[in-house]
Description:
With 203 residues, the protein is an alpha+beta fold. The protein is built from five helices and nine strands; from the N terminus they run H-H-E-E-H-E-E-H-E-E-E-H-E-E. The protein has helices spanning 2-17, 23-28, 53-64, 113-116, 172-180, and strands at 31-38, 41-48, 71-77, 91-95, 124-127, 139-142, 164-170, 183-184, 187-199. Strands 1-2-7-5-6-4-3-9 form an eight-stranded antiparallel barrel.
Amino acid sequence: MRSLLSAVAVAICVSLSMLPLRTGDAQSRGMIAIVISTDRGDIGALLDSARAPVTVTNFLRYLDAGFFSGGQFHRAVTPENQPRDTVRIQVIQGRGRITQPDSGFAPIPLERTSVTGLQHVDGTLSMARAAANTARSAFFITIGNQPSLDEGGTRNPDRQGFAAFGRVTTGMDIVRAIQRAPHTEQNLTPPVMIRSIRRATAR
Length: 203
């Protein structure tokens, strides 16, 4: 009987974990809801400020400054357009207004996936970077699971990985449509406009 009750309890917990979080509930758990509005449609996401506080705080300062309004998704990485890469990924990359580079904000320390526990699964928001500790405002969204972007992964030769900080909750069809949009090599032609990135209103 006890084992049956335990199995039922586990099933209930799993079912509850699969329910969508309301914005108010998400915020109480350190999750901050945002909306990425593009020419192709809206993408909803949750930023995990509890597990990636430095990265989320950085992203929000650009968001609150309006830096992403008039930005663009400019890069689409597909299995077919990485001929020189032995480790291939699938992402779309976004940036703010190119006329206002990074608003004068300093780069941030890399929050490694081994520390945050956030992995690069389907729909993960993560920060683009060159060397470690150089991320500013450029970000990407993964399509499919991309473990090579976690710490220890081999996409970047330094094996430090990238700073995952959130996940898409609605609009993965928009993300995939952007990835499939016309491109030359990895450059979207034309780029997909980011109308705004804003905090979602509580409901």
